[in-house]
Amino acid sequence: MNHHRALVFAAVLLLASPTLADPEAAQRVRLALAPRVDDQTFVAAAVSIDAAWADGALGTLGRYGLLPPGGRATAEAHLEQAASLLGRLHTLGVREVAAVLAVPDVRLDSGVLVAVACEAPQKDDIVAMARGLLPPPLLEALQLRWEGDVLLMGVGKTLERYASLTPSPRSDLLDPLTEAFERDAAAAAVVSPGADVRRVVRELWPTLAPPLRDLDARLAADGFRYLRLTVRQPPAWHAELTLAAADDASAQRFKRLADGAIDAGVRFAKSEPRAAPVAGVVEQAATLLRPRLEGAALRVGVAHDDGEIAALAKGFVVPAVAAGQQAARRSQQMNDMKQIALGLLNYESARGALPAAAAICDPQGKPLLSWRVAILPYLEQQALYDRFHLDEPWDSPHNLKLAEVLPGPYFGSASDALRAAGKTTYLVPVAAGTAFAPIEDAKLTQRKVGKQAVHFRQGLSYRKVTDGTSNTVLIAQVADEHAVLWTKPQDWRVDLADPLAQLRQAGRDGFVTAYMDGSARYFPFEVQPELLRNALTISGGEVDHP
């Protein structure tokens, strides 16, 4: 599941709810969780399952900047898929998915207990569907067990512990949760430690640094009742975070602490150079999301029609999503480079030398096809390789048709425009002294490939790389405007006087490379040209490589 699809599905789980209130939801949630809470339980949560929320979820994603440019159609498809899934679960009898977490569950060999509350469930179908949805590693770890109309899911030790649990009445935990569903909640989560945890807090609470110094043991253990997050149904959804205190005086102390912490955060954002890009958004958030005091509670809420909150969310989310997408692209590019470099290394190991940039030629040495075609068998693309007419040029009718097939490593992070054109930005450096420098009188080797007599031009032997393979660039990412058809015997003609000339691109801050040892590295455009030039040569004797 990619980043965007995961984001859409997270919104689904958050916003899923019936169109109308279900008066029995609170009762089902209580019946599912009451036998599974004791004094050690400190979190209880539940979400209603229904497919009637899709339009609201899509609108929310767009309003809060969670849809990438041109991503609406993709989001609609994912939401339709998720709506169908949740609708199917509802048809089978699934009504709410609830969960509890206790102190003993916070261990590597244990975990949260999920309790699926059902109404006239079709049990076998629900289990089969659950198993189909879970990824294999999770499916192997989790166990599923029915207790009445409640399906329990958890790792083995968790289910064992809850099977022998002696429940305790926990109105402090379950009342706020079920109250949320009585008020048409789509989802709610409550944090409320039991008496023993509060005792430990009372005895071991440390003295905190400003601005939280006034949060002492007594206030933390006895002045705090619960923390609750409630989300009401879309499309007119509303989310609210409530801190319920023991009394008005405690609530006032929590209010002062919250204000002090928020103000400290604003001061930090304004004074810290690294936070400068978001300082304005932080200050706006401090104003809009400052909790309000209502008797013995602090509340902060956001609503679907709050334009200021939507603008604030975009201020946070859009840069974060952009940064995440950039990081994902860079990771994909690094993986692509490593895979291509490995293909070249394996080719060199099998043939005794790298391919020349124009690796496949006619008998007179005229270039026909690129090294990118020659190494296809070493990129797990043997079937595609076998389809080429290797004795014809890249622009023959047959081979041009094959250029429309895009091998993953050459196009993993390519733009839609580059994909449509069949062009790649992963090129090898062609200049005197580089790994793909033209070799005068380079040997042509004829080999049979199927029924074809194919002539391959031999390139550099690794034995001639005296600067060290870990210091020498093998492949680089050029700017989109210099991309080439991936089958064409054309590459990066390096101007060693200005090696960055064909690499710089607006909207990017650098480029990826692969080295002759198979590693991949990222270069910022601020790299000194001399250092890049040193990294491009195979025997310059330089040691000051980036």
From TrEMBL:
Key words, A-Z: Signal
Domain DUF1559: start-end pairs: 324-489
Family matches, as Pfam families: SBP_bac_10
Signal peptide: 1-21
Xref: InterPro entries: DUF1559
Entry superkingdom: Bacteria
PANTHER family cross-referenced by the UniProt entry: GENERAL SECRETION PATHWAY PROTEIN G, TYPE II SECRETION SYSTEM PROTEIN H
Protein name (record): DUF1559 domain-containing protein
Originating organism: Pirellulimonas nuda
